[in-house]
Design a protein that fits this description.
- With about 475 residues, the protein is of the alpha/beta class.
- It has 3 domains: about 10-60, Arc Repressor Mutant, subunit A (Orthogonal Bundle), CATH 1.10.10; about 105-265 and about 435-455, Rossmann fold (3-Layer(aba) Sandwich); about 290-425, Glycogen Phosphorylase B (Rossmann fold).
- It has helices spanning about 10-30, 40-45, 50-55, 60-75, 120-135, 165-175, 185-200, 210-220, 225-235, 245-255, 305, 325-330, 340-350, 365-370, 385-390, 405-410, 415-425, 430-440, 445-469; strands at about 105-110, 140, 150, 155-160, 180, 205, 240, 260, 290-295, 315, 335, 355, 375-380, 395.
- It has a 6-stranded parallel sheet with strand order 2-1-5-6-7-8, with helices on both faces. It has a 6-stranded parallel sheet with strand order 11-10-9-12-13-14.
- It comes from Phenylobacterium hankyongense.
- It holds the Pfam family TetR_N.
- Keywords: DNA-binding, Transferase.
- This is Glycosyltransferase family 1 protein.
- GO terms for molecular function: DNA binding; glycosyltransferase activity.
Length: about 475
């Protein structure tokens, strides 16, 4: 197999021009609203002609889709050390709107994150989809595996869909959804959002990943640029679903509105404590075992864990772009690569403490998976852990976002593993799915029927015109 030809000078110039344009978009978003974004101003800021911008990005949706992909690529590139997260106050729970969670609906889910990706967002969406179908709902998933894709630069495991607008439009027409949820802000999410806005269809969105913080920590770009994009994307949404009160508080502070709680769940059958006859996957390692499970990437702040002076052994489970670097830097840490199914469950159950050092997650599903396995969790007081751990008896928080993680790890060794498991049993995927349905904005019955009837009639008229010609 031939290796790909090295990039030519012309290729490099094209990539530099493209990056100039996307950086100009970021600066424009920092200075104004998304709705005010113009190709002329972007071209002027980038130092190129307006025609050049149109040659690279023929529509505003193409420009914003590229900006999102570029922002995501920067989020997983190797950066400087992440900035210290500021502490966030918690706010009271919002009153959930009344919804009939038992009436079957036709629900369309548009997402740029789906299998074979392995992360908390994908696990949440796949499990909720399965629960919705078990509850009698019909769910249509629009995901990257249904389109042509290209691998995200610096992170090939993530595939970005291309050429999605017209196919997604056809999926809407064929499925005739009663409720629409857009789970991500990427190309598929952008296409679904555009359709909903143009056709005046109500829809909901969810906030899973803190890309503005990721990008701002890695590039000389202001936090406001990322949030300008995110606010523009979620503004027309009937409800913006978030996993925790702390996350809701943070987004409220950034000017988001219509925010509702959407709980998370855990499979307490798949993740369970180690039985008396179960083998110890860490046999031969010095105890106690402190475990991390997740993507091995800089945004996960793993070095804050690996650099701790702890007794016993540190174990890391998971793949990612920072894996080889950390293996070389921390030779006494055991890196076991990706695990799934029973193997993953056994790693959770055989560990003494699970360590969650991230400051930038919106929840941290692995926290519940560890707790369901009876393993207590040590974490920083960031969104997710600060909402789950205090008062649970299932873990310990560090004193601040930069200090005290070692003490929290050692405190976890004193906790009752049976109490840890009992706390996790309060979370279920069925309750998570019911929360999701309550938050949906289904089209009112009479309006829904008339809308799809008009759309079908319009499609027939369009088909007849070429025949008549």
């Amino acid at each position: 197999m031939k290796s790909p030809a090295p990039p030519t000078v012309r290729d490099k110039q094209r990539e530099e021009t493209r990056e100039q344009i996307l950086r100009a978009v970021a600066r424009q978003l920092d200075n104004g609203q998304m709705d005010d974004l113009s190709f002329a101003e972007v071209a002027k800021d980038a130092g190129v002609g307006e025609r050049t911008v149109y040659r690279y990005f023929p529509t505003k949706e193409a420009l914003l889709g590229a900006f999102w992909s570029w922002m995501q690529a920067q989020a997983v590139a190797t950066p400087e050390r992440p900035r210290q997260a500021r502490s966030l106050p918690r706010i009271r729970e919002a009153i959930a709107a009344t919804r009939d969670t038992h009436r079957p609906m036709r629900i369309l889910l548009a997402t740029d994150a789906w299998e074979p990706q392995v992360n908390g967002v994908v696990r949440t969406l796949t499990r909720v989809t399965a629960e919705l179908r078990a509850m009698g709902h019909t769910v249509e998933v629009v995901s990257p595996d249904q389109f042509k894709t290209f691998p995200l630069p610096t992170y090939a495991e993530i595939k970005v869909a291309i050429g999605v607008y017209e196919p997604v439009q056809e999926r809407f027409k064929a499925f005739e959804p009663e409720a629409i949820h857009i789970a991500t802000e990427g190309p598929i999410g952008l296409a679904a959002r555009r359709i909903c806005v143009e056709w005046k269809l109500p829809f909901t969105t969810s906030y899973h990943t803190r890309f503005p913080e990721y990008v701002s920590a890695r590039l000389p770009l202001p936090l406001a640029a990322g949030y300008a994009y995110m606010k523009w994307f979620h503004k027309p949404s009937g409800r913006l679903m978030v996993a925790t009160p702390t996350m809701r508080d943070e987004l409220t502070g950034h000017g988001f509105r219509n925010i509702s709680s959407w709980s998370r769940g855990v499979d307490t059958e798949a993740f369970h404590p180690r039985g008396p006859s179960d083998p110890d996957v860490f046999e031969g390692l010095a105890r106690p075992v402190f475990l991390y499970v997740g993507r091995v990437a800089v945004e996960k702040n793993i070095e804050a864990f690996l650099g701790l002076d702890l007794p016993g052994t540190k174990v890391v489970v998971g793949p990612g772009p920072q894996l080889e670097e950390l293996k070389a830097k921390y030779p006494t840490t055991v890196f076991v690569g990706s695990k799934s199914g029973e193997e993953l469950s056994a790693h959770y159950a055989c560990a003494d403490v699970f360590v969650f050092p991230s400051l930038t997650d919106t929840f941290g599903l692995v926290i519940l998976e560890a707790m369901a396995s009876g393993t207590p969790v040590a974490a920083y007081p960031a969104p997710g852990p600060i909402d789950i751990i205090p008062g649970s008896g299932a873990g310990a928080l560090a004193a601040s976002a930069t200090e005290g993680l070692r003490e929290a790890c050692l405190d976890c060794l004193k906790l009752d593993r049976k109490q840890v498991r009992a706390f996790a049993e309060k979370f279920s995927w069925r309750a998570c799915a019911e929360d999701f349905v309550r938050n949906l904005q289904p089209y009112p019955e009479p309006e829904k029927t008339r809308f799809w009837r008009r759309l079908r009639r319009l499609a027939r008229v369009r088909r007849r015109r070429p025949e008549a010609a």
